[in-house]
Amino acid sequence: MTPAEFPDTEKGAMRCPKFDGCSAPICPLEPNWRRAQHLKGERVCLLLREAVKPGGNALLVRAVGRQLAATVAEALPEIQASSSDIRNKLWRAAATGSKIAGGDALRGRTPQPLAEVFPAGGSPRTAHTSERQEVQA
Q1: Which of 2, 14, 40, 50 is most buried, by the most CB atoms less than 10 A from its CB?
Q2: What are the angstrom distances between the C-alpha of 104 and each of 30, 54, 101, 110?
Q3: Burial (0-12, 13-18, 19+ Cβ within 10 Å), 125
């Protein structure tokens, strides 16, 4: 489903393309996500995991549209601060490749070269490697 196909009548988590198979207890698209509880070991939302990657916002905009990407970006800092388990999982996710970009590449749907999304070398892994080297230097 492309961003243009999301019905305007859908609210909350139902707007997410992964809604049917998602088991994350905290969804940034839900207006009342602050009431949800995340227990250690539970899954973290794919959109949150993608948002923390280099070029993550561009990937989200391409995958779910500007409005949903903005909603995720707005909730991200507060969700990260709400749980050390979420924070740790997002930190690990930031150092791995993008599932969205990988899926797009497999399907031949990469509308922009990954080098534009990950300018440090053309891939999520090399982008993070160069960032780590800069931080360590």
Answers
A1: 50
A2: 26, 17, 5, 5
A3: middle
Residue pair 73/56 in contact by the 8 Å Cβ criterion: no
CA distances (Å), 130 to each of 99, 119, 135, in order? 20, 10, 9
Structural tokens at position 101: 């970009």
Q: Residue 51 has which token pair?
A: 């948002």
Residue 76's nearest CA partner among 85, 86, 67 is: 86
Query: Which pair of structure tokens corresponds to residue 74?
Result: 């707005």
Residue 103, C-beta contacts closer than 8 angstroms, at least 6 positions apart: none
83 in Cβ contact with 92 (< 8 Å): no
CB atoms within 10 A of CB 32: 8
* Residues near 111 by beta carbon (within 8 Å), at least 6 away in sequence: 62, 104
